[in-house]
Amino acid sequence: MDVLDVQYYGFTSKKRDEQNNILYYNNKTFNSDYAKYNWMKSQILEWTKDCEYIATEDYAYGKSGALGQIFSLAEFEGNIKLSEVERGQKMRLYSVNSNKKFFSGYGLSDKIGMRDAFDNWLGIKPDLSSLPEVDNGKGVGPTSDIIDAFALCECLRMELKLRAGLVQLHLLPKHQIEVYNVITKEHPQGLLVAPFITK
């Protein structure tokens, strides 16, 4: 369960942020949102094809934007999730607040708080020095998205270590214990006994 290597991939609509692993897209290239989402889906499925476990944030219903955009984004995310599960990967959904709480200690942390937690995180993590600096609470793409994704990976990695008995829950910081022990309508058993989403 040790981290041997960290890689990240993403998308940007700003040409100056394009890299080999940050793919630039121009909305004018696509004749519809569905064409763009299909292109993005193909990239994501290629990037994650060797993953046994997948962690993702559950839907954030408070996202800003027009209702149509929210539904369109939800359809896109759902399509990817279904595709991952269909090919046999095990998926864990973490609420946005749980991910923030695990990583930063505060469930309502803004993007500055997540950036600070990332900067202070010990261990192997991606080098984001070539990406735009996160300098506001709403976040800066693609940097803030990568930080959130890294936090999800660490949350999943810790869950797997707990399940394997490599780490004892009572030795974790209080805020992390709460993440794994919380009982919700979606997780009436708590994360550590809830099954992964599978085919």
Summed up, the helix count is 6
Q: What is the typical, i.e. mean, pLDDT?
A: 91
Share of helical residues: 40-55%
The CATH topology label of the domain at 51-181 is Nucleotidyltransferase, domain 5
**How much of the residues is beta strand, in percent?**
5-15%
Note the gap between the termini.
Answer: 24 Å
Based on secondary structure, the structural category is mainly alpha
Biggest β-sheet: count, sense, barrel?
2 strands, parallel
Radius of gyration: 17 Å
* Counted beta strands: 4
Name the quaternary structure. Answer: single chain
Helix-strand string: EEHEHEHHHH
CATH architecture of the domain at 51-181: 2-Layer Sandwich
Task: Write structural notes for this entry.
The chain has 199 residues and is mainly α. It has a domain of 131 residues: Nucleotidyltransferase, domain 5. 42% of the residues lie in helices and 8% in strands. It has six helices and four strands, in the order ββαβαβαααα. The strands form two sheets. The protein has a two-stranded parallel ribbon. Helix 3 packs across helix 5, helix 3 packs antiparallel against helix 6 and helix 4 packs across helix 5. The longest helix has 21 residues. It is globular, with a radius of gyration of 17 Å. The mean pLDDT is 91.
